[in-house]
Each structure stands twice: as structure tokens, then as C-alpha cells.
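Bug #77: duplicate submission created two jobs. Keeping one. Sequence:
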Amino acid sequence: WGQDAPLLHDTSEYGVYKGWWPESRKRIAPEEWAMARALHTGEVCPGEEVEIETFAGRRKTILNAAAPIFDEAGAIVGGVVAEMDITERKQLEDALRQAKAQMDTFLGMAAHELKTPLTSLLLGLQMAERRIRRAVQRGEDLAATGEPLLQQVMGAECQAERLNRLVNDLVDVSRVQAGKLE
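Kept job's structure:
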């Protein structure tokens, strides 16, 4: 950095760096870099997440921190910068966010798919129960009411089997995710 105080505050060399603020996607101005601010203000600039393009043209996400170094008289004589490459961590976080969104979508669809046969099953059983109660109250012979009731119960059984298959599929999915089923 040199020993001349004005050189410490010169931000022109930061213009060669390509960096963006992740939230706004706005380019980082030369005077906004942590080291430039630390040298200018004399304050520590704690870790800030920034996206950069290396001189080799690769995009990375880094944590960038800087602090000024003072002499005995309290004048800024230099600075120290620390950077940590968190590109892989950010990629993993993004993948996790996407997986969670897909899981939420899947669970919403699964809930809808489970409700359809469950509603049919409950409706069929309720109708069969009402027919039986009416027949008993009227003193009817249940043999005469048997065929329609049998059809309703068979329909309810079919929906129960469908529901059972869907639940088994969900159990299998959870086993695969837990690594307990191939």
C-alpha cells in the first residue's frame, strides 16, 4: 500500500475487480470494497457476502472482510483483508432450497391425490350405512337391499385399495430418501 496516507485512500485500483452485491445484483463500486472502506473510514468491515468474477473469468461467492492497521500515532498505515470462498456452500444451499420446494410441491400433490379416494370411500360407506339404517327402521328384508349395498361397499373397497397403494408409495418414497430402500 505504500507509506503515503493519500495512497491508502486511493480506490482507483479497485476498478479492475468485478464484483456484485448478491441481493441487488448491483456492481460493487471501487469505493464500496471492504478494504477501500476500511482504509477510508478506519473502521473494521466485517464479512460481507459478494459475488466476484476472478481474473480467470470464474464466478465465485466470497465472504470479504477488511480492517485498517494503525501506527502508534493512530494514523492508518495499511490494512488487512480476509476472504473466504463460499461458492460451494451457496450452491448447496440453493440445491437444498430447490429440493425443499420440490418436496413441498410433491406433498401438496400427494395430499390432493389421497383426498380423492378418501372422500369417495367415506361417501360410499356413509351412503351404505344410511341405506342399512333406513331398511332396518322400515323393517325391510335386507336381502332385497343387498345388491345395491354390495355395489356401494365394493366401490368403497376399491377406493380403500387405491388409497392403500398411494400411502404405500409415500412410505416407499420416504424409505428411499432415508436410504432404507433401493
